[in-house]
Design brief:
single chain; five-stranded mixed beta sheet; Protein-Tyrosine Phosphatase, Chain A; disordered C terminus; 11 helices; about 260 residues; 5 strands; alpha/beta
């Protein structure tokens, strides 16, 4: 099973299904997607997107990013939620080569997790609504803001940390194409920071450990700051997990850590 879904202009669109959770169930395939900017959808890519039957888009970008790069096109029955979770912009490409990728990005994720509580909480409510699915959430590259929300959702569903980290690092398979897009916008320059477009495992491990250290656990953080009470988490699990009877051998036959 290949997680990345091939598009001409999208580089990091992938299915978040198949991850096993506590109790033996799994995240539903074809129900939850993550992506880089959907403002790039055109032509055959748009047809491919529509064929997935997606009903809800959560756009995590700033207003100015949408103004510059566009948003997902309108379509009958497609709901669009603009929830800009990051409140302190920074320029990754311009960072110095001495900036350590893992610790630096984990610290930025911690800022987003605490600055963007209103938007993150709203995103969880959208994802928990039965009428929302299938859903895709995205930012610009589908790595940082998207990776943060994916980690929170998978944690609340009961996915193991190793699988959450593995899901995050799959962006590495799209790094070269993301870099090519950046160079196309910057007259064939190269980013100053070697960490641009990278998704090493220690970023997510640091971030999850920091949340647990500050709040007791990721679940406690989500409960205290995002309003993820037992009812909301139960709704997430009903909406995004396979029914208990469908979590057997057929589900286990799908590749969990594939590209």
């Amino acid at each position: 099973m290949t997680r990345h879904i091939a598009f001409e202009r999208l580089h990091n669109f992938r299915d978040v299904g198949g991850y096993r959770v506590d109790g033996g169930r799994a995240v539903r395939w074809g129900r939850l997607y993550r992506s880089d900017s959907l403002g790039k959808l055109r032509g055959k890519d748009w047809d491919r997107f529509l064929a997935l039957g997606i009903r809800t888009v959560i756009d995590l970008r700033y207003d100015w990013e949408i103004a510059a790069k566009g948003r997902v096109p309108d379509a009958p029955g497609l709901r669009y939620h603009h929830l800009s979770i990051e409140h302190r912009p920074y320029d990754q490409a311009a960072l110095g080569p001495d900036v350590e990728t893992g610790r630096y990005l984990a610290d930025r994720y911690a800022e987003v997790a605490h600055d963007g509580v209103a938007e993150l909480g709203r995103a969880l409510h959208v994802l928990s609504a039965e009428e929302s699915g299938p859903v895709v959430f995205h930012c610009a590259s589908g790595k940082d803001r998207t990776g943060l929300l994916a980690a929170l959702v998978l944690s609340l569903l009961g996915v193991a940390e190793d699988d959450i980290v593995a899901d995050f690092t799959l962006t590495e398979l799209a790094t070269e194409r993301l870099l090519a897009d950046w160079r196309a916008d910057h007259a064939d320059q190269d980013p100053v920071w070697p960490g641009y477009g990278r998704a090493p495992a220690d970023v997510m491990r640091f971030f999850l450990a920091d949340l647990a250290a500050a709040h007791g656990s990721v679940r406690d953080y989500a409960t205290e700051l995002l309003g993820a009470d037992e009812e909301l988490v139960a709704a997430l699990r009903r909406n995004l997990l396979e029914p208990a009877e469908a979590g057997g051998p057929a589900a286990r036959g799908k590749a969990v850590g594939s590209a």
